[in-house]
Amino acid sequence: MSRHSRTGAGDGIRGTGPEDGAGAGQYADTPDMALAGLLRRDVTTSFAAARELRRRHLPAATAYAGVCTLTPGSARLLAAQAFARAAQEAKRGIEPPGAWRHRLLLLVARAAAAWTADERAVRLDRDVVPSDPSATRPPQLLEAVRRLPLRTQAVLWYAAVDEEPDAATGVYVGVGAVDVAQLRGTAFGALRSAFLLSRLEAHGGPDCRGYLRLLENAVLPQGPRYSADLEDHLAVCACCGDSRAELLRLNSTPRAVLADGLLPWAGDRYALAPRPAPAAQPAPPAGPATAGSGLAALPRTARG
Q: In degrees rounded to 5, what are phi and psi of residue 69?
């Protein structure tokens, strides 16, 4: 486990620092994807949009970076580099397939993988980040989640993993709080179906598809339905047995299982780490420090 202190204002891996409440108040209700598009605009607009994205998502990135590193300073540096990469991608028009925050955390992992190749490796928690990240298997729920509509993907991350309020999730995704509640109500059923389908396509035998509906019924949260035919199949099929076990885990501890299945390393630690205090409502910035892509909103360590 990361050796960071998890207490104290600004020092816990999910604590918000004094800058996290500063940003562009006029964009407080703007969806993430629209903010990302504003990074391609003039310097004043891109600066303000970057500040708002940073206010919303950098604490979570620092939390995951804290799981991967040994000190709070290293966590802040790693998270800042990932945010800089995310802002650069947005400026080039590269859109994440789901939640902007989830993409940011994947970029934290990518930056950590790059650190393993040079002197920065000593900053990493080697119990979390492997010495050869290229051997890491893709997160096992990622393929299934990518099959879902973009809004459903984003709601799963913000509402289920990060447990954001419906109002905040709605702002990030660009829907109303009522729509978030509806999406959250159907998202897990859609995920279960997508997971089973992707798992059976990749690892199942010729007979497995015929048990898809029975498997879905066997993991219903409101009450699994028993099938003797399915039990006979599970006795000889490791793929379907493992799939059922994973979905039962998802029913039992959805937050930790989702995070662990969508991040390359220690997602469950990220999900269970202390949550940050809500960032203050942003105040208008004094003005951009430099011209460019909105990266003036970043710490100096992330700009180089």
A: -125, 175
- Containing 214, the helix (H) or strand (E) segment is helix 212-218
129 and 154 fall within a common domain? no
Distance CA 150, CA 154 (A): 6
Location of structure tokens 């990135």? 61
Q: Residue 4: what residue type?
A: H
Smallest CA-to-CA distance from 129 within 99, 158, 109 is with: 109
Q: Which residue has the tokens 């703007």?
A: 30
pLDDT, tens only, 28-43: 999 999 999 999 999 9
d(CA 202, CA 154): 25
> How many alpha carbons lie under 13 Å from residue 249 in its C-beta half-sphere?
14
Is the same domain home to 258 and 287? no
Q: Are residues 93 and 223 in the same domain?
A: no
Return the H-helix or E-strand segment holding 45: helix 43-68
Number of domains the chain contains: 2
Q: Kindly report the pTM of this predicted structure.
A: 0.82
Is residue 16's pLDDT more than 50?
no
Domain coverage including residue 91: 1-137+265-304
**Each residue's pLDDT tens digit, 189-240:** 999 999 999 999 999 998 999 999 999 999 998 888 999 999 999 999 999 9
Burial class from Cβ neighbours inside 10 Å (0-12, 13-18, 19+) for residue 135 reads exposed
Task: Report d(CA 269, CA 67) in Å as an integer.
Answer: 7
